[in-house]
Protein 1
Amino acid sequence: MNQEERIRFQELFASFREVHQAYYQAMQYMTQKIGMTPIQFLTLRILSEKPFIGLSEFAQLIRATNSTASGIIDRMVKNGLVSRETPATDRRSVVLSLTPKGEEVWHQVNEMRMDHLSPILEITPEEHQQLIRIHGKIVSILQKIRDRNTGSES
């Protein structure tokens, strides 16, 4: 890799890091205002999109261990936002879903997020499409690298 490529590489990943940090800080500010953490917000989002998932699948989606995921769920069950049920067909598994209170909180918080972050829409539709296209290309490249490293190429 030559010097110019190194600089491009560093700039690209510095940009990702800056966007991620800025988004996380915005989410942290917003969720703190309502007494929630970003991971609890993420949990609400995941369970609204994938009701009745298991704890292991949830842990994978948040990129955490089952133990960490279980702790998050425990606190949200205690707050009445999430239900943890054991299906009659498999007494060893647990399925997670939002309670009616959790659904209500999710809708309120998601609406706040949309309002809070709506200035992002100042980018033009063309810039939006370019960004989505470029992100898709980067994800594809990184997945190929992952597949090559794990030996799971298709």
Protein 2
Amino acid sequence: MVLNVPIDTQELELPPQECGKIPAAVEAPQPAPGPLEAFGRLLSEASRPVFIVGRGGRSPGAGEAVRELGNQAGALLATSAVSRGLFHDDPWSIDVSGVRLATDRGADFAG
């Protein structure tokens, strides 16, 4: 979701009585043990794992955590377009995963 607020509105000061209480910090979500164990089992059985990282990989510490797990699992590292460059210096990076059809050629691939 994108919220577009006009510049002149952004520059207005909010009167103190309209300022709300700052919400408490939210704890990072934790995976349920069952699916996490299943993921670990599938990963250990995979012969050629590839980790494809999207926008969430840009969160603080996420890219490094994926890189570390990928190194332990022997996985190739790929990203979506929005996270391009996250693993640019890693020898196991295969850059962006996915396909983008040029508009003038898209009809060649339509079914």
Protein 3
Amino acid sequence: MGMKYTITLQNCAFFARHGVHDEEEFLGQRFFVDAELDVIAAGALESDSIDDTVNYGIAFTMIEEIVTGKRRNLIEALALDIAKGLCEKFHQVRRAKITVRKPNAPVPGVLDFVQVSVEHFAG
């Protein structure tokens, strides 16, 4: 019987220029990302080796590169690119659930943030 465990990177903050409106590109804003990675337990639980799991330092850097890289109109597209990238980079990841929060979304009212979650399943 197989096992899995979950690695979560919570509330990672990055400055970027995503959005549909010109002012979002011009001004930029902070985006917050949560990454929930389901990992097959192929040995890391017993080997206690970083080589058998997801190195969350590398995962964080990957998320940062994707968020601060190419501009996207939709945070939905951004979340999917992050999820796919993490599944491709780490063969142990079977599911990546990525949540992107945008606190300064241009809406005609007051809100804490807009949030989108995307799940991507490897292979």
